[in-house]
C-alpha cells in the first residue's frame, strides 16, 4: 500500500492539473446530513455508509462521495457554466470485502454546462483517460439513459414501469420482474392464493406489523390490478434482451442498438445522444473504434447516474476496484435544484490505486 504522504501528493498533483484547466477547487465537509443524502445514493452506498447521530444536527454520515455535496453546493450558489475539482477522503463500510479500504482519497472533476452535453461527456472522459495514461487500463463505457428510455416506453401498466425503473440498478430483481410481467414466470403461490380470495378487502388476512386494514386492502387492490394487466409482449421482451446483451466497440454498439430501435423506437433520442458523444470523443482524440461499450454497464453503481457512464480497470489486477469511474447525473441536479436543473457530468480517480499499479509495473 502506498504511503499516505505519497497518496496526498499525487492527489494534489491531479487536482492541480484540473485547476490549470480552469476548474474551481472546492471543499465539502467530511460530515454530511444523512436524512437527505441517503435517499439519493443507491442501495449499495446506503448499506455501506457510516451514519451517526448528533443531538443538534440529527443524523450525520461520513462523506461516501463528493458528487452529491458538490451538486448541492452548485445548485444553491453556483454560476453557469461551472467546472469543479476536489480531493479528499471518502468513507465506505467494506464488510463484504474486508481487504478493501474503508477510507480512501478521491480526486474528481465535475462539469455543469448545458451548452453541449456530448462535448462535456467527452471532456470528462478524455481528461480522466489522460490522467491515467501509461497504466495500461481497460476503459468500459455505457449509457444508463438508453435502458431508462426503453423501460419508460414499454406498453405496460404504469406501476409496472415504475417498479422496473426502481430496480434497474439491481439486475437480478429487474430480470425477475421482467419474467413475471411478461408471463414467463408464474405468480408466486402465496400471491396467487391471496388474489383468489373473493373480496378485495380480504378481512381474514392476519394483521402483521404496522399496516392497518386499509393499507392491506389497498395493497391487495394494487396486486389485483397488476394481475389483470396484459403481459409485456414477446416482441418487447426480445428487443430488451437484445439491448441488454449489447457489448461491442462504440460504433458497432450504436449500429446494433439502431436495429433494436426498430422495435423500441423510444430509445432513438438516447441513441442520437450516444452518436453525438462518439463524435465528440473522436474529436478529443479518443480511439472510439477500440472503446468498449456495454449496454448494461453501470447498473450496480450509483443510482443517480442517468446517462453516460464509464470506468477504468486494471485487467492484470482483477482484485482491485475501478481505478476511476464517472458518469452523467442530470436528474440529480433536478432533485437538488428546487425546480432548477442543469446537465452535469463528472468523474473520480483513486490516486492510491494509481500509485500501487505504478509500483508493481501495472
Automatic annotation (TrEMBL):
One of its GO terms (cellular component) is cytoplasm. SUPFAM superfamilies: Class II aaRS and biotin synthetases. This is Histidine--tRNA ligase. GO terms for biological process: histidyl-tRNA aminoacylation. The keyword Magnesium does not apply. Pfam families: tRNA-synt_His. Keywords: Glycosyltransferase, Transferase. Homodimer. L-histidine binds at residues 65-67, 92, 106, 110, 299, 304-305. Transmembrane segments: none annotated. One of its GO terms (molecular function) is histidine-tRNA ligase activity. Residues 18-351 form the Aminoacyl-transfer RNA synthetases class-II family profile domain. Gene3D superfamilies: Bira Bifunctional Protein, Domain 2.
Amino acid at each position: 500500500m502506498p504511503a499516505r504522504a505519497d497518496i496526498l501528493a499525487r492527489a494534489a498533483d491531479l487536482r492541480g492539473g484540473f485547476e490549470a484547466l480552469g476548474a474551481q477547487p472546492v471543499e465539502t465537509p467530511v460530515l454530511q446530513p444523512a436524512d437527505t443524502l441517503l435517499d439519493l445514493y443507491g442501495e449499495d452506498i446506503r448499506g455501506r455508509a457510516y451514519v451517526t447521530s448528533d443531538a443538534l444536527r440529527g443524523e450525520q454520515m461520513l462523506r461516501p462521495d463528493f458528487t452529491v455535496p458538490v451538486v448541492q453546493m452548485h445548485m444553491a450558489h453556483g454560476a453557469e457554466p461551472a467546472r469543479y475539482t476536489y480531493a479528499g477522503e471518502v468513507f465506505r463500510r467494506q464488510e463484504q470485502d474486508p481487504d478493501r479500504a474503508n477510507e480512501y482519497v478521491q480526486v474528481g472533476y465535475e462539469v455543469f454546462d448545458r451548452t453541449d452535453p456530448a462535448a462535456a461527456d467527452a471532456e470528462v472522459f478524455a481528461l480522466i483517460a489522460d490522467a491515467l495514461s501509461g497504466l495500461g487500463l481497460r476503459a468500459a463505457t455505457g449509457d444508463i439513459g438508453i435502458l431508462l428510455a426503453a423501460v419508460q416506453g414499454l406498453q405496460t401498466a404504469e406501476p409496472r414501469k415504475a417498479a422496473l425503473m426502481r430496480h434497474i440498478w439491481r439486475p437480478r430483481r429487474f430480470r425477475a420482474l421482467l419474467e413475471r410481467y411478461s408471463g414467463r414466470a408464474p405468480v408466486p403461490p402465496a400471491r396467487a392464493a391471496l388474489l383468489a380470495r373473493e373480496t378485495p378487502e380480504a378481512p381474514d388476512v392476519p394483521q402483521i406489523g404496522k399496516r392497518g386494514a386499509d393499507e392491506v386492502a389497498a395493497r391487495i387492490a394494487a396486486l389485483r390490478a397488476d394481475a389483470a394487466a396484459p403481459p409485456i409482449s414477446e416482441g418487447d421482451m426480445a428487443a430488451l434482451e437484445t439491448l441488454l446483451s449489447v457489448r461491442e466497440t462504440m460504433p458497432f454498439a450504436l449500429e446494433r442498438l439502431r436495429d433494436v430501435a426498430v422495435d423500441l423506437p423510444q430509445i432513438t433520442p438516447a441513441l442520437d445522444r450516444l452518436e453525438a458523444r462518439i463524435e465528440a470523443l473522436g474529436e478529443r482524440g479518443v480511439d472510439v473504434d477500440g472503446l468498449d461499450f456495454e449496454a448494461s454497464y453501470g447498473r450496480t453503481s450509483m443510482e443517480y447516474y442517468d446517462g453516460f457512464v464509464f470506468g477504468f480497470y486494471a485487467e492484470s489486477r482483477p482484485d482491485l476496484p475501478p481505478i476511476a469511474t464517472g458518469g452523467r447525473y442530470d436528474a440529480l441536479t433536478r432533485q437538488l435544484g428546487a425546480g432548477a436543473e442543469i446537465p452535469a457530468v463528472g468523474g473520480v480517480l483513486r490516486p492510491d490505486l494509481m500509485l500501487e499499479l505504478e509500483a508493481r509495473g501495472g
